[in-house]
Amino acid sequence: MSLASQGRLPGLKALAAGKVDRRFLMAGRCGIYMGLGFTMSCARILETGAPFGMAMVACSGPGLSGVFSLLGASLGYLISGGMEWGIRYIAASVLIYTIAFVFHELSIYKQRFFMPSASAAVMALTGFLGSFYIPQRSIPLAAELFLETALAFGGCYFFKEALLLKPQNTESAELLHSISCIIMASCALMAFARIELFGVVSLGRFMALLLVMTSAMKGGPLTGAAVGTVLGLAMDIGHAGTPFYTMSYAFCGLLSGVFGKNGRLIFILSFILSGALSVVAAWNTEIYISALFEVFCASVVFMLLPAQFLNHLGLMLAYMERGKGESGLRRFVSKRVQSLSDAYGELFEILRKNITEPYNDENIARVFDRAADEVCVGCKNKNLCWNAEYVDTLSAMNDATQAMIKNGSLLATDLPDFFRSRCISLPAFVTAVNGELRGLSYRRQLRVKLSENRSVAWGQYADISQVLNKLALELGSINGSDPLAERRLIRYLKELEIDGEAAVYRDGGGRLHAVIESSGLNAITKNENYLEKLSSIVGVRLCRPYEAQDGESRLTLLEAEPLAVSVGIAALKKKGEKVSGDKGSYFKTDAGVLCVLLSDGMGCGDDAAKDSAQVVSILEKFLRSGVDPAVAMKILNSVMLLRSTDSWGFATVDLMCVDLFSGETCFYKYGAAPSYVKNGKNIRRIKGETLAVGLSAAEGIAPDIVRMKLRPGCTAVIASDGVIADSDDAWLKEILSDDCDDMKSLAKEVISKAESFYGAEDDMTVVTVRVEERA
What we know:
Layout: H1 9-16, H2 22-42, H3 52-60, H4 64-103, H5 114-130, H6 141-162, H7 171-192, E1 196-197, E2 201-202, H8 203-219, H9 221-239, H10 244-257, H11 264-281, H12 289-304, H13 307-317, H14 325-354, H15 365-375, H16 382-388, H17 390-407, H18 417-422, H19 426-475, H20 483-495, E3 500-506, E4 512-518, H21 522-525, H22 530-538, E5 542-543, E6 554-559, E7 563-572, E8 582-588, E9 593-601, H23 605-624, H24 629-641, E10 651-659, E11 664-670, E12 675-679, E13 682-686, E14 704-709, E15 715-719, H25 730-737, H26 743-758, E16 764-773
Antiparallel strand pairs: 1-2, 3-4, 4-6, 5-6, 7-16, 8-9, 9-10, 10-11, 11-14, 12-13, 12-15, 15-16
């Protein structure tokens, strides 16, 4: 239950700003404490006990509040019980005020339980001394003394918490404040319960019924039952009879709370019916006809109460459910990530459209101009060749251009006879032209390389944009925590007496995750069938992650996939090599997707092995983090392209992704050898056209993608190009046509057959995958 403390903040702010006269505030405070002291002293337990007035004095402190609380309590004890009865409680109140006044400057006074303990001690002492002149009653004196002592302790503790003006900054503090307010209100209603209207309707019980109705209608059946139990118990303690009101109020709050959303009329009828059933159930013990009148009167008044007032009162009594802060945070982060994705996408478009090419100085005519600037500038025939007979010189250069381009260099014989006879520095001119021609060729190669690298760099902005966009969609998805499954799991932990935390949620793909953190997990896992038990609790079949990394105090479970796979791997190194240039791997992501990776580094030996290992490592990290496979492979291709030309390397990539929830399968290939899928009697060859990663320089080039759906019983074979050396694959199809359930044996058989056909002239690796229904 949550009792809003924010309503006091405007008054506190006004006081801080100096807008309210402190004298009026102090007078009002003193009046409130005096009224509370008077009211609490009039409350009775077992008809004659009254510990709450003294408890109110104890929690008020030694200042003016304590003085007026003592004054109000003393008046209440005298007026409600007379001098002979009340002198004991007045003495206890004076004594507890004296203790507060004496000890208030010491550090022990500030201890949380000092004044409650002092109240209990004073009440026990005065009760013991007063027992010598109290006549014997039906209730044992020791029991009554113990009850008064306990209530004095609890009253002081909870009254002080209820009267705190500072706002509660934690959930536990707010809960304690709310409970304290309910307890204080219950004690006050015990005093009003002694006032009867027309000799039939108790004012305190009438007001208690209004509170039970409000809590049941606004907070639901559990809140209604809880508030009804507390208020009913208070009425029974004051009545000193059978616990009828505890039973009646709790039952009314529980039953009527079920109909709280069906309108006020139906709710009231259910409350009246519940009250009548309570009276009938207790008929043999004692007839509580007055309870029927109280329920009816409270129902009539409740029907007339304004909705705004009920809403405000309901907020004070109802249990405040947790808000949607977590999902709100996820959506906030989703929008931030989406904005970042859009920014990268826009940056890519700006770079692609607005970056202009530099000045083009690669015209072939510039070769002759630069050579002339170098050789002819000091020649005595300069003016003749380049001024008087410029047209003839230009014609000679044009005639030599075609032959120069064809041969890759300029020969003296490529120039016309008249030019050769006239040029006195012909060898130097030809040498200069060839030097400029080589420079032009180098610049062109550099420009092509820079253009490729720039294209790759631009493409990475687009790839990052896609990665962030997918992340934003997952963060903003409707999936999130599963409150029902979470509550069931927590209830199970409590049933096993395990103190721990549980979180149950669904990821962007809808897969359920359950995480339990506790030091007592052994109580769960020691049972061999604990997965079946936990599965029945959360409502879906669970399994441990493929590569669980939990410690002793953490247990992570995932929704089990309906499909399972068996994988076989076989490999053979090239003859004469110490290491294989092929690298394979397979793993299952948190989304329930099996990824099978095979990379063949170009060449053989250590360099090829290094390239293929780097490819598999990079791609595996991207896939495990949830990046789309096509985007991950494009990023991989960009990385390989941007490597230094001094360490140039290429590698084929073969990736197979199988969704074990639906069977949807994708093959992604960069220069990889064909793969084969057997579905029933049909065998399908899957071949790509793209080059290996590090060779495809086109902007944003994507891998070859083939999509299909694998059903239980399907088998796939992924092999490096050393296994499938040419288009003759009849032998492989023949092996697949035979039924084989053992994937390791199948992989070895394919390797053995390939070796007999082609020899070990290249590295060979085979990965076989079979899809089955989960047992």
